[in-house]
Amino acid sequence: MTRPYSSHMSRCPVSADVVARVLTRVLALFVAVLLSGCAMVRVNSLGPQQYFAMRRGDILSTGQLSAATQATLRVAALDEGSCQSAPQACIDTIASVGGLNTDQRLASLAELSLQMALAQMPPAGTPWSDAQFDSWLKTARYAYAFLFFGQRTAGERAFEDRQTQVRDYYNYAVQELAAALFLRGAHETNSDRDPEKQSIAGWTIHIDLREVRLPEGVRELSEVIPAAGLSFAGLRNTYRRDGLGAELVAVTQAAAPDPASETENSAENSATSGTTSSATPAEGNANSNAAATIWFGPGSLPFNEMPSPNVTALMAFGEGTLEQVLDSHNVIFSAYDPYRVERVELNGQTVPLAANFSAGYGIWLARSGFARQSLRSLLGRTRGIDRPRIYMMQPFDPDRRIVLMLHGLASSPEAWVNVANDIQGDEMLREHFQVWQVYYPTNVPILVNLARIRQAVQLTLAHFDPAGTLPASNGMVLIGHSMGGVLARLLVSSSDDVLWVTVKDNYLPEGIDIVRDDERLNRLLRFTPMTQVERAIFIAAPHRGTPFASNRLSRWVANLVRLPLALLKEFDEMLQTATNADSTQRAGKTIPIPNSIEQLRETNPIIQSTSRLPISPNVCFHSIIARRRETGPLEDSDDGVVPYRSAHLDGALSEKVIVSGHSVQETPEAIFEIRRILHEDIEVFDNHGAPDGACARLRAN
Fold first, then answer.
1. Fewest C-beta atoms under 10 Å: which of 15, 83, 311, 394?
2. What global pTM score does this model have?
3. Is residue 471 assigned to a domain?
4. Dmax over Cα atoms in the chain, in whole Å?
5. Of the residues 140, 164, 189, which one is the last residue of a structural domain?
């Protein structure tokens, strides 16, 4: 009997090779299924963004744990997701698990603690709980332990990305803790609270502020602002110094007074923040108390120290071994003036101190209200100013020479926003100079402003250096823009009898002479160069006046300008006491007082006379001049306001002409030229002493 099945097989024969191949494939598939849990290695190329994210991305920059910490979690058999839901358990495991070296462990603990602290952050402006303080303090402590008690020194890890990351964890934690500590103190109602020690969540925080000097008379802060979170419109550059520590701004008062509290033409009208010192110059100084009272009101001096100084904060955690540091709950919180302190020593290692040199200046300007107030001052309206003030961009430094800046008409310290910032951002210039700015009412006659500014500078110097022997009291550099350049030139010029004759011939009624020994007129009409000044930079300055002051618009604005009533009264009294006129001759007669705009006209007798006054031979001076168009004869050019013929000065050591409008001082080319001159000044003055007559010899050559 035939077998159908075998008959079928005979019709479809299968070779042994085919069977073997099928069995091999089935076996391979079976093995693949069994081994599907094993790792499969593939290679991919990374682009630059992916490369940097992998190498340097972390909880601060991307919101995700760094690759190094993720690797640590895998070594410890931990899952990143579970560490987010139960962070403390994850931290405890990393702290005790084997298989990690000290640096791996500490760096990962710092980042994991930071992740937990960030997740617990309260809304802005809300005081922290003890648990939140504890998280942030542990973050700073782990980072501190890594930096100073790890397997290797900071120098040995200098080129490692991981050290940069952990330094940032430390700096950020200290920044947040500094702001939270201040907020906690501001809400503290206990009058017996020790300002040098706080106990929080089992931690004892010792506060050391000896290296920070606040403005005179200030004992408390009104605000602590982390500088890292600030950006400024109007500042072209933000200048920092990389290093250890939290970059902060310590705001001492509101940056501008309440306008509603100011009175018209008050001597106390001030657009700034900060402190007005009530101290008086030392006895025997040329600037007496009487002079201070005449110009600036009784018992006051005309300076304000920076009300929002830059500060750098550090936290140190115990001493001894690594284990002792990690067990310590004693913290030393210390703050430093970054202008004076560049390096600190921690656990036997010298490290650079982080710094931000722009943030405090930016906050001051942003809150000043200068723009509106300067216009009110020009027009003589309420809530303006009628006395010059000196603003110090950092606490007074006895060892740094002074760069004194004078703004122009209808302007304010805002005119110098990028000039001052770039000077303070230049490491060499910052080492040698401190910046002072003059803010003055630009409606007042030039000679009145000149006398008051001179007095303001002298009184401020006398307050800080009664003997006049400190480096800060010598080798001053003046920088003046527009009308400020005219004033700067007169601060280093001699008047002799020229202005007496000018006033008599042009402003007094016929037959009336001036009493030459009248103190008030002497202060206005007779002056000599300030001996503290050794260099000056005049920028777009109308030394010989400007036709712009005579056009229809300028005449219209000049008619809107009101001079302070006190000044008008003072001049009227001078007519009575400083002339030989009797009561009949004086009847109905007053001395005409031109305002600042009128005095800048090319035909004005005062500007014509002052343009001929000689500059001290001991002063090096430079000109920066703007022209609107690059083409055409230089002698016929102008910047839209000041013609070249008025800004040019014979004898200048350098003259830089820049294609620009009148606000040339803020152009990169002008700032570069200013920095060049200041660097040159350091070489001449600081390295060679700049003996008397040096500038005269330079000009002669």
1. 15
2. 0.84
3. yes
4. 164
5. 189
